[in-house]
Amino acid sequence: MHSHLLPCIDDGVQSLEESIHIIQNLFDLGFEKIITTPHIISDFYPNTPEIISNKLSVLKSKLNEMGINIKVEAAAEYLIDEHFISLLESETDLLTFGDSFVLVETPFLNKPFFLEEVIFKMKAKGYQPVLAHPERYLYLQEDYGIIQEILKTQVLLQINLTSLVGQYSRGAQKLAEYLIDNNLIHFIGSDIHNLKHLATYQKALSSKYFDKCRQLFLYNNTL
């Protein structure tokens, strides 16, 4: 879960061929299901459920044509900002995976001052927030105590597996290891955007920390 494999829709894969190539490799690795999650960021990637659904249909049709027997679903990765708040306050249904999980991200430098308010509104509407790649946020790298504050709001945490092999920064790797060591993660994602990310992901599957991840109770088992 958590990938950017719908072509030409955000900063992920930029062609249908690239998407198929990556998915074929994931299938060969033994994956049976992919939940891809394109960005929804109003200023940069103003995607809608209709746009995402149409792209997914094209991708699934091509996979079926090529005989790649893997299940692909789509949700979204929402940036928590004013636009997201407006979606919550409207009658718009958010894109979910599983029963009610919604993948969200925050700006990387600073914690949004309205984060707790957004989480409350999400849960009041029956959504379960899943915070994407907390290890990458500088404000969490600088203050691990904020992690406990976020967990108290019953947010679930999803790390990127490639953080464990230094794809982003030493700070991100260190925090990812801390979250695993303290049994604080609920999901492991790939966050694959392109072929380069795929190569790093394959390397991460051999990480010593991946074995620890496999021993944790992960909500992935229910999706």
First-to-last CA distance: 9 Å
List the helices and strands in order.
HEEHEEHEHEHHEHEHH
* Structure summary, number of beta strands: 8
Provide the low-confidence segments as ranges. none
Describe what this molecule looks like in 3D:
- 41% of the residues lie in helices and 14% in strands.
- Strands 2-4-5-6-7-8 form a six-stranded parallel β-sheet. The chain has a two-stranded parallel sheet with strand order 1-3.
- By secondary structure, the protein is α/β, with parallel strands linked by helices.
- It is built from nine helices and eight strands.
- The protein has helices at residues 16-28, 49-66, 82-89, 115-124, 138-142, 145-151, 170-181, 195-204, 208-215; strands spanning 33-36, 39-40, 71-74, 77-79, 101-105, 128-132, 156-160, 187-189.
Tag the structure with descriptive keywords:
223 residues; alpha/beta; two-stranded parallel ribbon
